[in-house]
């Protein structure tokens, strides 16, 4: 999808940046900066001049690198504090910070963190050693050489990073991003960074584009995406510009406008006897500028279950050139079929479709049926009905009459009850004419509707 390159560091603090970039061997010319910045969070504990007075750490403030932070502890108030800024390599003291230059930022005068009131003003960027002298109210004094460090380095940043749109679609996968690269100096000044390479990183790893900033630090890049992505503008440490560290913009999410789809699933019949098959036909379509067009060559699956509880797998399908497919299935119970398509193309939306309810009629049989005349006006009929798999709660059997077996008239209903040999029923019907008699069970949507063998009864 994208041109693969190195994975950029995912630093959230200056310390993390230094550790990660050092691991990637990108700052071999700036190891002194790495040593300094690595102290920003952890600090270096100082040796104790007495049991009470101690300098715990000395470091740059993490989000304000030109500000020096000193933690001092004692059994009494700190009354004097001096920091000596020592240049790397020369051991020359380039700045001296006295007690009046500090303010208590956190804690107490006995155990507190002291910040310089203003950023330290130095002529050159770099990593500076800091020696500290401290005195407490009891008269104890400590002189701590190499008590910590000041990371007097520039922090690049992206105050602007935007795209011409925040989503792509199947026909338009290119977008333009633009932004501004500046650097915050340790004295808090903001300066533009001209003629510097900016990489546009997709999903924290792939380089989607590389561009250079103009004289005003601005950049524009054209990015092609084949999926949704999280974009970031990234500035990597450059040996030609020491003391400027790694930086990334805020994340910018680019989404996908998926192509609408519609699916159709039809069953060949809505009523079948148990053991019979139903033919399923389906069609998948996608919306285009010219209207709905077939989705050809895509695969999915078909499920089946009662009351939209799709717990049986029917099988898979692949659409033909016209977006259709067909399959045959033999369901064991009444239920609904559902096709489901999970698109492998991120620009095509997933979808599903249900068939109409297919009634699977359970089998019904007659164990016996008889009819005989008891007097010139009355016929007695009885028999037994049986259900192979499930039995309805109420079993109503109709006694029917036909003079010739072509059309039947219901004479009376008869309730069937279990009598030890089956579900027995009987009825006496008024009929003085000769003809054919039978029992008929109307199964509705759950059971087969079936008539018994007919019996001829004379006068």
Describe this protein's structure.
By secondary structure, this protein is mainly β. Helices cover 5% and strands 53% of the residues. It contains 3 helices and 37 strands. The protein has helices spanning 14-23, 31-37, 39-42, and strands spanning 54-61, 64-73, 78-86, 93-97, 102-107, 111-116, 126-136, 141-152, 155-163, 167-169, 174-184, 190-192, 197-202, 206-212, 218-224, 229-235, 247-248, 252-257, 261-267, 271-273, 278-288, 291-294, 299-305, 312-318, 324-329, 336-341, 351-354, 359-361, 364-375, 378-387, 396-402, 409-415, 417-418, 423-430, 435-441, 450-451, 455-457. The strands form 9 sheets. Strands 10, 13, 14, 16, 17 and 18 form a 6-stranded mixed β-sheet that branches. Strands 31, 32, 35, 36 and 37 form a 5-stranded antiparallel β-sheet that branches. Strand 11 and strand 12 (190-192) form a beta hairpin. Helix 1 runs antiparallel to helix 2. It is elongated, with a radius of gyration of 44 Å. Mean pLDDT is 89; it is low at 1-50.
């Amino acid at each position: 999808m994208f041109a693969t390159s190195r994975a950029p560091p995912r630093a959230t603090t200056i310390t993390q940046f230094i550790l990660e970039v050092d691991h990637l061997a990108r700052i071999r010319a700036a190891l002194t900066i790495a040593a300094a910045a690595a102290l920003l969070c952890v600090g270096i504990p100082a040796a104790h001049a007495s049991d009470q007075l101690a300098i715990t750490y000395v470091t740059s403030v993490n989000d304000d690198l030109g500000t020096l932070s000193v933690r001092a502890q004692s059994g009494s108030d700190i009354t004097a504090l001096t920091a000596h800024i020592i240049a790397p390599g020369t051991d020359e003291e380039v700045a001296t910070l006295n007690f009046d230059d500090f303010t208590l930022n956190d804690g107490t005068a006995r155990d507190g963190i002291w910040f310089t009131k203003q950023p330290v003003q130095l002529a050159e960027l770099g990593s500076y050693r800091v020696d500290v002298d401290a005195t407490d109210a009891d008269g104890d004094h400590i002189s701590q050489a190499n008590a910590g460090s000041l990371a007097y380095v520039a922090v690049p940043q992206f105050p602007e990073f935007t795209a011409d749109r925040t989503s792509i679609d199947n026909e338009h996968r290119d977008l333009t991003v633009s932004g501004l690269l500046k650097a915050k100096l340790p004295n808090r000044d903001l300066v533009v960074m001209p003629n510097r390479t900016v990489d546009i990183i997709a999903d924290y790893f792939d380089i989607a584009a590389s561009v250079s900033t103009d004289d005003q630090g601005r950049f524009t890049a054209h990015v092609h995406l084949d999926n949704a992505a999280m974009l970031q503008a990234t500035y990597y440490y450059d040996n030609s510009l020491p003391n400027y560290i790694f930086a990334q913009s805020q994340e910018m999410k680019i989404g996908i406008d998926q192509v609408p789809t519609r699916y159709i699933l039809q069953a060949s019949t809505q009523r079948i006897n148990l053991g019979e098959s139903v033919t399923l036909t389906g069609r998948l379509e996608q919306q285009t500028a010219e209207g709905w067009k077939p989705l050809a060559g895509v695969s999915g699956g078909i499920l089946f279950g009662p009351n939209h509880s799709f717990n049986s797998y029917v099988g898979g399908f692949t659409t033909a050139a016209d977006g259709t497919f067909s399959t045959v299935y033999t369901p064991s119970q009444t239920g609904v079929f559902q096709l489901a398509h999970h698109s492998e193309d991120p620009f095509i939306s997933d979808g599903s479709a249900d068939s109409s309810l297919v009634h699977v009629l359970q089998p019904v049989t007659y164990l016996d049926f008889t009819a005989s005349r008891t007097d010139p006006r009355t016929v007695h009929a009885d028999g037994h009905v049986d259900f192979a798999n499930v039995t309805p709660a109420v079993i109503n059997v109709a006694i029917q009459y036909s003079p010739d077996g072509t059309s039947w008239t219901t004479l009376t209903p008869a309730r069937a009850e279990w009598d030890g040999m089956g579900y027995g029923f009987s009825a006496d019907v008024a009929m003085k004419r000769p003809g054919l008699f039978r029992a008929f069970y109307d199964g509705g949507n759950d059971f087969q509707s079936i008539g018994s063998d007919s019996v001829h009864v004379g006068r």
